[in-house]
Amino acid sequence: MYENFKNIIDTLNSNSHFRTIKDFEKKDKKYIYIDRKKLLNLSSNNYLGLADNQSITKKFLDSTRETYSFGSASARLLTGTLPVYKELEELISYLFNKEKTLIFNSGYHANVGINSSLASKGDVIFSDKLNHASIIDGMKLSQGKFFRYQHNDMESLERLLKRERDNFKTAFIVSESVFSMDGDIADIEKLVELKEKYNCMLILDEAHAFGVFGAKGLGVCEKLNLMDKVDLIIGTFGKAIGSMGAFATGNKILIDYLINKARSFIFSTALPPINIAFSKWIIENELPKTYEKRRKMLELGQKLGNQSHIIPVIIGTNKDTVDLCNILFHNGYFTLPIRPPTVPEGTSRLRLSLTTEIEFEDIEKLVEIINPYINKSN
Ligand SMILES: Cc1ncc(COP(=O)(O)O)c(C=O)c1O
Fold first, then answer.
1. Which pTM does this prediction carry?
2. 353: Cβ below 6 Å to ligand 1?
């Protein structure tokens, strides 16, 4: 009965594709412990060190007068809404200078709900080829058609727009700002220019930039002063903010539409109030203090040759990538092999993500170890 699944698992295993959930013993600041081994954690989205941070959690709990519960027991449209949800949504609208905001349970929920519901029959989405799986899943569920342009290639996007835009009613361009696997940054100025020229709406996922880029930490759009040019900005609370959940902020009509049509929002129990309160508290109290640390982290990313705090080390084959991860493990570094289908075939890689707690001295030896591997694949 299970033969078919077993065959698939065997194939995954023989291609070094098989994934397992690791049993970590504990996390402590920039370190993670497995099999009683202390490892520098280079695979975390805890960019500001706010998640798993006992002193931050304690500070938050001490500062809240209300006893927030750990369950909402209902979807937002039923009885799952309390004032703190609205307070967080209003805070995001205020910071981004947008009309309205909607909280989703995660970035995955947000992208699936938004991309599946906004584009109806006769509409079209133009999506960067390396956009996150949640965007792809959303587009696949949509009644509209979608086209994928070459990664961060504005000529490829314009060719598609020229060829296809007029065949459809409403059109959307969807991109990440900081790309999750490559750590490069979308050409947002050009995306804005193209969306205006071809009468499209622009949706930007700032999952890896919210809490990291910009004077206030709102993302790349803030840094470039382009927030008002983007129709829908998505950010997540589960990465730099150290919490859970996501938001979409934009025009009131779009947000009201999502409240009525985004099924991942409608048909799922709302996040626990304590979690919403924590996200709000972090954004109000901790994020404003992080500017200098964020600047240093991004400087280190640049020193390592990338535009952001996410550094892809492209190795090539699955086997070489997995082997290198094992070598790094024995040298005290926790990295994960990123393999297809997460990244294109032949570009298996290590994805090193920096946090504000990691300094160059921490990774000097790692750079020495990985250098020959990079050369080998070229
Ligand atoms: C660009 C991007 N969007 C959305 C998500 C999903 O966010 P969440 O983990 O909150 O579901 C991720 C997750 O890694 C991501 O990289």
1. 0.95
2. no
